[in-house]
Amino acid sequence: MKLFLHKLRERWRRLPIWLRRLCGACALLFLIALVPLGIIWQHYASLASTYDMEALTRGQNETLIVDVRGELIGSASDIEREPVTLQNVPPHLIQAVIATEDARFYSHPGFDLVGLMRAAVANFTSHGIRQGGSTITQQLARNAFGLQGRTYERKLTEIFLAMRIEREHTKDQILTHYLNRIYLGHGCSGVGAAARCYFGKDVRDITLIEAATLAGIIKAPVAFSPITQPKLARQKRDLTLKRMVETGAITEAEAAVAIDQPVVVRFDKTRVRTGYMLAAARAEFQRMGLKPGTPPTMSMTPRLDWQHRLDDMMRQHLDKLAPQDKSGLQGVVIVLDNRTGAILAMQGGRDFTTSPFNRALEGVRPPGTALLPLVYAAALTLQPDVTDAPMIDGPLDNKQAMIGGLVGTLGEWGADGEPVTYTGGTITPMQALLEGRTAATVRLGYQVGLDPLRAALSRCGFTTPLRTEAAFTLGQSHAHLMELARAFTAIANDGRPCAQPHLLLSSSSARSDEVFTPAAASHVRNTMISGMTRPEYRKPLVEHKLAKKSIAGYGGITYDRTDAWFIGSDRVLTCLVWIGHDKDFPIGPKATAATAALPLWAAVFEMVTAGQPKGWDAKASSPKLLAVPLRALPVEDEVRVPAIPPASEVVLGIDPYRAAAPGAAPVVP
Question: Quick one: 389 and 496 in the same domain?
Fold first, then answer.
């Protein structure tokens, strides 16, 4: 050793003086540079130590939503996740990810010096930051800790965090976190969710070609999506396969066979078919204040197979109604449990991918004459003695209703928009309900009193205001579709609506208060059962095995044919179907409830009841209507209304309600 040092000193002395001075200056500069480098190192090492490593696993704990039979539907968060363990990931997927993202993953300490130098040269020559040279560990740090921007400061923070992650975790742990966190497009976080989204299978079952496809889109999952950009996805897949050859993961022959194959995507249709339902369940989950992962699974009230069939039914029905429709004909289906309020099936529109607006929960539309059963149930609750009281059966001045204007005679469109021939005599309220008579309904509203009738209807749970004029009795006020469906459960449930509608089994609400008397609900229900024998209803009911089943159903339409409805119940379920546009655009010149809404309703009701609805006893009679106090009605809503004259005093052709009003002259049709 002494001899070696002696020879080294001798060689140093033989060097020219200028060279010895230059070397000394360089050494001095190096020592001086160590000071700021040490400061920088200390700063970023200290900064990295402040980050919570729990963030690596945060977001991987997910609550999975399953249907009532345990079938997986999706996750409770907006980003689809399906956590995996490294043991469940096929080796060729791990090899593909390492080959394309970080070939020296198992040998570097968190950052790859070779990759950083290559990126530095590229950035210098391009006069900007074009490459990052990030390892898998650096990408994990950036993803887990939300490091944003393309700056040198962010890059240094990322490197020091990566080194800390490497010190505190094994390579397999790092890779597992990475595979569960990496975003792969179409709302999928992690390879588990991506495998199901793109290929419709569990990640453990994906092939070499599918693995290379997933690995190839990591850098830009939207730009290289195999669903929307199959050509670019194939290019990236082939590049990944070639890199796998370079790393020795596969042979050239295996790569050649795979490269000859096209990119085949089996997009998970469950994501589309359950889109409305899953989005609503996620919102309900958030309202409950639950954290992802607690509980690990959450059951929904609908059945997944029903939802798949319902999605197909909706598309087929709307396509049949309007094959060349370019105005966006939409539809809604809601099926509720009459007691619990569980949403057993729901479709919020034609197609969730093109229109994610959930009309079933957020939409408001005028019910038109579909509201009549609720109007009559409210009227019978307020004044039980009007059940068999005769009402004039003749035209009504539109000033009394204000439908579409102030002049002319109120039209009779009922559920079918067909012309009505007045008898010129009288008609009972139940007969008027059965036939959907608009003039008689308005007269009933004036008899009972518009203000108390409006208040009674509001008790059904409508949060949208009802119009002040008599037009509200004909469904001209907008209503939330879910609230309308719930209100109809009161008719099936002897005057008591179901609990608040819900999708998640653990979010049921308290029992509702009575809004109609049992007798009023029964009279209206029996009338609806009788109405199901109408000739125009026969074909779809027979086709779906629902004829003669004592089901209570009612169809309605708005006067301008913009909205068609059919709502029906058995003892257990209530189903609502709406057909229309988001804007006030007519469905068609001959659209009726029977043609536009009933066929879809019948198909859905057959599905959810298995063709065996639990109807009411056709021989059962309605209980006697008894006068009841107007509970829960504000005092100011109770107004004095003229009494209906006895049948012997009815003057044909004269409206007895207006004739009885103080200071009002009889209206002669």
Answer: yes
Tens-place pLDDT, residues 99-147: 999 999 998 888 887 766 665 555 555 545 444 568 999 898 888 877 7
Output the six-digit token pair for 170.
Answer: 């094994």
Instruction: For residues 375 and 254, state if they share a domain.
Output: no
Sequence-distant contacts of 150-159: CB under 8 A, at least 24 apart:
156/40, 156/44, 157/44, 157/47, 157/48, 158/134, 159/44, 159/110, 159/111
Reported as a pLDDT band with limits 50, 70 and 90, residue 278 is: confident
CATH number at residue 198: 1.10.3810.10
Residue 411 is assigned to a structural domain of this protein: yes
DSSP summary character for residue 397: B
SS3 label, residue 66:
strand
Q: Among 382, 393, 457, which Cα is nearest to 631's?
A: 382
- Secondary structure class of 345 (helix, strand, coil): strand
Tokens of 337: 């449990």
- Answer yes or no: do 262 and 371 share one domain: no
Residue tagged 């008579």 (tokens): 437
Q: Quick one: tokens of 415?
A: 């559920």
Number of domains in the chain: 2
Full residue range of the structural domain in which residue 503 is found = 365-623
Query: What is each CA distance from 40 to 114, 134, 161, 166, in whole angstroms?
Result: 21, 20, 14, 20
Mean pLDDT over each residue of the chain, to the nearest integer: 83
CATH code at 481?
3.40.710.10
Same domain (yes/no): 552, 423: yes
**Do residues 412 and 535 share a domain?**
yes
pLDDT digits (tens, 9 = 90+) for 284-314: 888 888 776 677 788 889 998 999 999 999 9
pLDDT band of 626, cuts 50, 70, 90: very low
Of the candidates 380, 507, 514, 518, the one whose C-alpha atom is nearest the C-alpha of residue 460 is 514
- The answer to the question of residue 380 being in a domain is yes
Burial bucket for residue 334 (CB in 10 Å: 0-12, 13-18, 19+): buried
Residue 231 belongs to a domain:
yes
7 located within any domain: no
Q: Tokens standing for 212?
A: 């290379």
Cα torsion for 181, 187, 192, 196, to the nearest 10°?
A: -170
What is the rounded CA–CA span in Å between residue 242 and residue 249?
Answer: 10
For residue 221, the model assigns a pLDDT of: 92
Phi/psi at 241 (nearest 5 deg)?
-60, -40
Where does residue 156 rank: exposed (0-12), middle (13-18), buried (19+ CB within 10 A)?
A: middle
**Rounded-to-integer distance, Cα 310 and Cα 329, Å:** 17
Angle among Cα 254, 256, 257 to the nearest 5 degrees reads 65
On whether both 505 and 378 belong to a single domain, the answer is yes
Selected residue with higher pLDDT from 575 and 287: 575
> Is the same domain home to 260 and 383?
no
**Per-position DSSP letters for 586-654, written without gaps between them:** -S-TT--IIIIIHHHHHHHHHHHHTT------TTPPPPPP-----TT--GGG----PPPPPGGG--TTS
Pairing of strands 364-365, 391-392: unpaired
DSSP run (H or E) holding 554? strand 552-557
**CA distance linking residue 291 with residue 531, whole number of Å:** 49
Determine the angle formed by the axes of helices 136-145 and 152-168, rounding to 10 degrees: 110
Q: Judge whether 537 and 598 are in contact, CB under 8 Å.
A: yes
The answer for residues whose C-beta is within 8 angstroms of residue 193's C-beta and 6 or more apart is 75, 80, 81, 82, 184
Both 261 and 375 in one domain: the answer is: no
Comparing C-alpha atoms, which of 443, 474, 452, 451 is closest to residue 650?
A: 443
- Name the token pair of 286: 């958030």
Are 426 and 437 spatial neighbours (Cβ–Cβ below 8 Å)?
Answer: no
